[in-house]
Structures are given as C-alpha cells and as structure tokens.
UniProtKB/TrEMBL annotation:
<feature type="domain" description="CBS">
    <location>
        <begin position="81"/>
        <end position="137"/>
    </location>
</feature>
<dbReference type="InterPro" id="IPR000644">
    <property type="entry name" value="CBS_dom"/>
</dbReference>
<keyword id="KW-0129">CBS domain</keyword>
<feature type="domain" description="CBS">
    <location>
        <begin position="7"/>
        <end position="65"/>
    </location>
</feature>
<dbReference type="InterPro" id="IPR045865">
    <property type="entry name" value="ACT-like_dom_sf"/>
</dbReference>
<dbReference type="InterPro" id="IPR051257">
    <property type="entry name" value="Diverse_CBS-Domain"/>
</dbReference>
<dbReference type="Pfam" id="PF00571">
    <property type="entry name" value="CBS"/>
</dbReference>
<dbReference type="InterPro" id="IPR046342">
    <property type="entry name" value="CBS_dom_sf"/>
</dbReference>
<protein>
    <submittedName>
        <fullName>CBS domain containing protein</fullName>
    </submittedName>
</protein>
C-alpha cells in the first residue's frame, strides 16, 4: 500500500498573506486541523490549529475584546507558519510515511509530485490503514499467538485454520525478541474447538496467548 492509496487529494490550503482570523475560520468551517500554505502554486509552509492557538494571547491578557480582535486581524499566516515542510511522494510506502511522522513527531505529510502538491496524508489516514489491516471492523475470532522464530510455523498455523474451516480476515506479525514474535490473526467461520485441540496437539513451537470473539 502506498501514500497515493490513502492520501486526501481535496486539500484545503491558505495563502501566507491570509490573516490569523481567516485561518481559524477556515479550519473550523472545513473541519480540518492543518492548512498547507501555498503561494504561486508552491507549498511554502504549513499551519496547524495548534500553531494558531499557541499564537493567540492567553486568557490572562489585559487587552479588551476590540484590541484583541484588531491584533489578531493584523497577524499574518507567514509570521507563524512552519516553513520547514516535510513531504513524501505518492509512491512512498505507507509504512515509510508512518515512520517519518513518528520519527519527526508530526501529524501529517505533504504529498508532492514534480514539485506540485497532489495531496496530504495525516495520522488519521494511517490509523484507518491500521484498522483495516487488523480487520477491526470485521466480525470474527481474534487470536494472538506467541511463535518461536522457526521457519514454517506461521504457515502451519494458517493451514491448520484452513483445515478447520477458517476464512482469514487479517494477519499481522510483530517481533517480540530475536527468538520469538507475536502473530495476530483474525478469522471467521472457524471450528474453534477443533482448531484449538489440534493446535495444542501439533504446534510445539507456538502458543495461544489471547483469544477474543
């Protein structure tokens, strides 16, 4: 799966010469949390709702409402936007985009192709991928197996599920240590008792550590 498969292409943008008030109104009206800042069809920055709130005077300010409104009306986006915009290509693997966001501690990435913005990918898009990968919206039995790092064990578990009528929904693995890893499997139509009996009889290098229906 690639960034192009999950990115938003109808991106709400703003000019660097727009005011603070215009940005806040746009964010609230369009229901977004960040605005790429675009000038002459080029991305020159990004502004988030958090940036705008941080730029607002605190509640302890001595300014009256008229002075405050005037001050914020004069504040331009180019004065508070982040200019160091991190971007990816539409063909970037989705896990690479997730790694970049995690490492950089950011909530979105601008998507550029031939130096032109074609979309934006956010942490919400990544969460949706995670939900789909784990089959979180599907009904079924969810197993977590602890598996020793022995070749062929995972294929044996999945084949046993097939033999017991199982129809796979999702399979995900993550490393526990160099010697073992966990496997999350969601399956439907499985003859549960038959599977678990045969599993206990014939899987010496794996164990069931969690089962949920």
């Amino acid at each position: 799966m690639f960034v192009r498969d999950v990115m938003t292409t109808d991106v709400v943008t703003i000019s660097p010469d727009a005011s603070f008030s215009e940005a806040m109104e746009l964010i609230r009206k369009r229901g977004v949390r960040r605005l790429p800042v675009v000038k002459n069809d080029k991305v020159v920055g990004i502004i988030t709702e958090k940036d705008l709130l941080s730029a607002s005077p605190s509640q302890a300010t001595t300014l009256d409402v008229w002075e405050l409104t005037s001050l914020l009306g004069k504040l331009k986006i180019k004065q508070i936007m982040k200019k160091d915009v991190i971007h990816v290509h539409p063909n970037t693997p989705i896990e690479e985009a997730a790694r970049i966001m995690t490492d950089k501690k950011i909530g979105s990435l601008i998507v550029l192709e031939n130096e032109r913005m074609v979309g934006i990918v956010t942490e919400t898009d990544i969460f949706k991928v995670f939900i789909n990968m784990l089959g979180a919206r599907e009904n079924g039995i969810r197993y977590v197996f602890r598996v020793q790092n022995v070749p062929g064990i995972l294929s044996k578990i999945l084949y046993l599920m097939y033999q017991c009528g199982g129809n796979l929904i999702a399979v995900t693995t993550y490393e526990k240590s160099r010697d073992e890893y966990n496997v999350v499997v969601k399956v439907r139509d499985l003859y549960k008792q038959e599977f678990e009996r045969k599993f206990l009889e014939g899987m010496p290098f794996a164990s069931i550590i969690d089962v949920r229906e």
